[in-house]
Design brief:
The complex is a heterodimer. Chain A is mainly alpha-helical. Chain A folds into two domains: about 80 residues, Orthogonal Bundle (Rna Polymerase Sigma Factor, Chain: A), CATH 1.10.1740.10; about 80 residues, Winged helix-like DNA-binding domain superfamily/Winged helix DNA-binding domain (Arc Repressor Mutant, subunit A), CATH 1.10.10. Helices cover about 70% and strands about 0% of the residues of chain A. Chain A has nine helices and no strands. Chain A is elongated. Chain B has two domains: about 130 residues, no CATH class; about 130 residues, OB fold (Dihydrolipoamide Acetyltransferase, E2P) (Beta Barrel), CATH 2.40.50. In chain B, strands 1-2-3-5-4 form a five-stranded mixed beta barrel. Chain B is elongated. By secondary structure, chain B is an alpha+beta fold. In chain B, helix 4 crosses helix 5. The chains are: A mainly alpha, B alpha+beta. The interface between A and B is medium-sized, with 32 and 25 residues.
């Protein structure tokens, strides 16, 4: 019986891949390749390494499909695998790089952190990238998932396996810390 | 080549690995077995944490351990000496293992660890305390000291309950002499020198068969008593069983450490009595009358 993959939910695709059609896994790759690449870019800065990590994520996801509970949300599960791989990558490559944001992302931060007047908009993107890179991973992860991946508190809670309240606390503290770092970085900025 | 600019290539690469069979789905049975193993290990560690907590309570209640605290700060040394360190360490070990395993299962999914840890602790303490009112621990103790049944496994943890102390002693009065007592302990007869007693003990008021708890200092065969009290009621039940029941039911129970206790026969007792009569209560009498020497 022909099934239109576009009409199937992620969870339904997983069920089909597990018992009938392994080829349908390509639909999962299509659906998540860009999203996960976008997410992982905040942790893996080298494009070649990024693709290697992404490949590992898809392979691990496929191998472990039977461990996924189809009554839960697949996207949270695959993000969790990506998150674990990102952490492994950071542990292996401890060198501190700087996050690179696109225009929309830095505007989201600018809008949500409410920095007030006095920030040079041209320098702001660089400052946000710099400050976000300095933030502890514990705060950086939920901020990235919330602002850039548009995940809800519930989904972040699923991905990071922490309670919703903790997600809220970490995001709130992360925002505050980011704002403080931005203000400090600004005060050290050389005057032209 | 910047590979990330070519999303089709990644998809093809992964799918070709899957289709060629080089990458396979892990069997669902592996995940079931893993889940079953994890849950079994978790259940076992919870049960053992409860059991060991129950044994800690039982040990403190039925041995001499808490009895020394009735002497106030003077009994602290004997209390610390008789404390069930091994039981407490093993209990804490299983508690930690349980906490660790819980974080690996779905039980703790998205719940704050401090609440899970607190709930776990309350459950273990409550169930452990409830078990203490049953005879489970006593049965374990009996199996351990009679060398029969699964309780034998717990012998290393309970053995110190009837062990030798250098600063405290509990036993049943066997003989009352001038300035000395001979008491029965789970390890055999013990001679108590009362000449250094800091509080008055009216010898006419004490009787054979009464239980005494004493603090002081061991000097080879003699225990020099600083303070001594009579203990009525049902306390020190493990010690009582160690004196009356286990030596009869287990011939190897009274295996005594060298140079501390001996069970005098009539000949030895006469020798000791004569020596004490002539020289006072002294270590030299034990050297002289010790049967193995």
């Amino acid at each position: 019986m022909y099934m239109d993959p576009l009409k199937l939910s992620d969870e339904q695709i997983v069920e089909v891949v597990r018992v009938e059609d392994k080829g349908l896994y390509s639909e999962i790759i299509k659906r998540y390749q860009n999203k996960l690449s976008h997410y992982l870019r905040k942790f893996v800065y080298n494009p070649d390494e990024l693709e290697d990590v992404l490949q590992v994520v898809f392979i691990k996801t496929y191998k472990n499909l039977f461990s996924f509970n189809t009554h839960k949300k697949f996207s949270s599960w695959i993000y969790k695998i990506a998150h674990n791989e990102a952490i492994n990558h950071i542990k292996k490559n401890s060198t501190n790089h700087q996050i690179s944001l696109d225009k929309v992302e830095y505007q989201i931060i600018d809008k949500n952190i409410d920095l007030g007047e006095g920030f040079d908009q041209i320098l702001l993107k660089e400052q946000i990238e710099n400050s976000l890179s300095q933030l502890k991973l514990k705060y950086r992860e939920p901020l990235i998932l919330f602002f850039f991946e548009q995940k809800s508190y519930g989904e972040i809670s699923d991905i990071l396996r922490i309670s919703r309240n903790t997600v809220g606390t970490l995001i709130s503290r992360g925002k505050k810390m980011l704002k403080e770092k931005l203000i400090i970085n600004k005060s050290y900025e050389p005057k032209q | 080549m910047n590979r990330s600019n070519n999303p089709m290539k990644l998809e093809k690469r992964v799918m070709s690995e899957i289709k060629s069979g080089r990458i396979k789905l892990r069997s669902k049975y592996i995940f079931w077995a893993k889940k079953l193993g994890l849950n079994s290990a978790l259940s076992l560690s919870i049960v053992l944490a409860i059991l060991f907590f129950n044994l800690v309570l039982f040990y403190m209640k039925s041995t001499d351990n808490l009895g020394y605290l009735s002497f106030g700060k003077n009994g602290l040394l004997a209390f610390l000496e008789s404390f069930p360190y091994l039981l407490v360490i093993v209990f804490l070990f299983f508690l930690l293992i349980t906490g660790y395993l819980i974080t690996k299962t779905d039980w703790s999914y998205k719940k704050p660890f401090k609440y899970i840890a607190l709930t776990l602790l309350i459950i273990v303490l409550l169930v452990g305390s409830a078990l203490a009112s049953t005879n489970l621990s006593q049965r374990i103790e009996e199996q351990a000291f009679i060398n029969k049944g699964p309780g034998l496994f717990f012998k290393p943890f309970l053995r110190s309950g009837m062990g030798l102390r250098n600063s405290g002693l509990v036993g049943e009065i066997d003989e009352i002499g001038k300035n000395y007592l001979i008491i029965d302990t789970p390890k055999g007869k013990q001679y108590l020198d009362l000449s250094q007693l800091q509080t008055e003990l009216i010898l006419s008021e004490i009787e054979k068969g009464q239980l005494v708890v004493a603090i002081g200092e061991r000097k080879d065969d003699i225990f020099v008593v600083n303070e001594i009290r009579l203990k009525g009621g049902n306390g020190f039940s493990m010690i009582r069983r160690g004196i009356h029941i286990y030596p009869e039911r287990n011939p190897r129970f009274l295996h005594m450490p060298k140079n501390h206790f001996f069970r005098p026969n009539e000949e030895v007792k006469k020798c000791l009595d004569d020596c004490i009569e002539d020289n006072g209560f002294d270590q030299s009498c034990f050297e002289k009358c010790r049967p193995m020497k």
